[in-house]
Design a protein that fits this description.
- This protein is α+β, with helices and mostly antiparallel strands.
- Helices cover 51% and strands 16% of the residues.
- It has 4 helices and 4 strands.
- The strands form 2 sheets. Strands 1-2 form a two-stranded antiparallel sheet. A two-stranded antiparallel ribbon has the order 3-4.
- α1 runs antiparallel to α2.
- The chain is globular.
- The chain starts with a helix and ends with a helix.
Length: 95
């Protein structure tokens, strides 16, 4: 599933998305962070020499959340940091 399709699925009223294993049911507390995280797909900082992702550009987060109509809260930021850490761990394991 593309990032755009997953982001769109996450913001639909039924709060569901699909993965290779089937549908993913999302509650509101999960859908908003996932929507913002997926919309940040072009906002990663990269190491200039190694070409590895370093983390999200935190300055972009409030603007992306606002464009999606999602309130920026401390809980949202904590959830995004958790997803960021997991994504970085997966990419590091693949290298």
């Amino acid at each position: 599933m593309s990032n755009d399709a997953l982001t769109q699925a996450a913001v639909l009223p039924e709060r569901s998305a699909r993965s290779a294993d089937g549908p993913i049911e999302l509650v509101q507390d999960e859908a908003d962070p996932l929507s913002v995280f997926m919309a940040l797909d072009t906002q990663w900082r990269w190491h200039a020499m190694a070409g590895a992702r370093l983390g999200l550009d935190y300055a972009a987060i409030p603007q992306v959340a606002a464009m999606l109509g999602i309130e920026m809260t401390p809980r949202l930021f904590i959830d995004l940091k958790a997803m960021e850490a997991e994504a970085l761990a997966v990419w590091a394991a693949r290298s």
